[in-house]
Amino acid sequence: MIDTLTAPICPGCGLDPELTVEEGFEDGFLMFPIPKAGICHFVCPRCFVVMMNRECFDVQREMRDKADSRIIRVV
Length: 75
Hints:
The protein is α+β, with helices and mostly antiparallel strands and 75 residues long. Helices cover 20% and strands 17% of the residues. It has one helix at residues 56-70; strands spanning 30-34, 39-43, 50-52. Strands 1-2-3 form a three-stranded antiparallel beta sheet. Strand 1 (30-34) and strand 2 form a beta hairpin. The longest helix has 15 residues, at 56-70.
């Protein structure tokens, strides 16, 4: 699942994750994944802005829907 996460273009400096090697940042964006959640924090190597992966809002919505389906309500 971590292989499918995509970093957004940095909102701070505009660095495109696809162009990090050409810009001189061989290691690319630093990743801090949240295990089994499909969510990852990315840190820009140029300006150190922390951002989420592009799919994080869809994943969060799915997680809330799954959690709601597991809640038992006593009426």
